[in-house]
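hey can u check if this looks right to u? its 314 residues, i copy pasted from the old doc so theres a chance i mangled smth
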Amino acid sequence: MIPLRPLGVGEILDASVATLRRYWRTVLAVTVTVAVVTQVALAFVQRYLATEPPALHADASPAEQLEAASAYLRASFTELAPTMLVSVAASVFTSALLTIVVSRAILGRPVTLPEAWREASPRLPQLLVLSLALPLGAGVLAFVAMLPGLLLGGAGGATLAFLGGAAAFVVIVWLLIRFSLASPALMLERQGIVAALKRSAKLVKGAWWRIFGITVLTQLLIMIFTMILAIPFTAIAFALDGVGVDELSGSGFELSWTYLIVMAVGGVISGALTYPIAAGVTVLLYVDQRIRREALDLELAKAAGITAHAPTEH
């Protein structure tokens, strides 16, 4: 599936797509199931827990505006929390199974869903803890950085909170990239959580900007694909439901099941196709760093049954 040498950006992206094409039965069995569960949960949240922006009169005082914003944030958290939990669970499940699929695909070996599940399931609890720890740690760091400004209040406090939030954002991005390879390390090397984080930091050291660039490029391509795919489904949803954009954004409007179902179908298709790309890039970045640092290509060649006299791509 990949040349046994350090990989370029195009080769990493191409191998992710090639894995989806070659192992589509196993990959889609995972991603379609996860995408359906995620979209069903999202539809119920949007239907019953959707939060409307607060309506304020023109001469509302700063205290009233702050109170309204605070109430809106609390309500939004009630809406987002179930979706975030489902998304994290979906991410853990797909990441675990697709890591196994991609690792087998690198060697050109077939893998079925039951085989991937047997190999991945013992690591799911640790992967779940790891997947929760990173965003929670980022949230705590951002809160601590903004807390002095929030306590100070006023224009000076707002400025201080903004500066603290900006500084925290930079640190969070740096940490997330530094630990971005912890998931495949945990799954493929049978590492513990702390050991996987240290392993990721070691592999990323000296290659932070490269991994950052490839990660951002991958997410940008996924976002563009998702937006393009969403356009026809949004148009169909509006046409079938008979609503306009003005009505959709109006106060008191409740999303209909027709609209939610059509958008959920689009979300399932998008998720089923983008989940394996994102997971594949992460695993291939991990493999690429090990090839560059630890000559993993020689071990892969041996595991794939390539002898010294067989043609290779070195």
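Confidence is low (pLDDT under 50) at residues 308-314.
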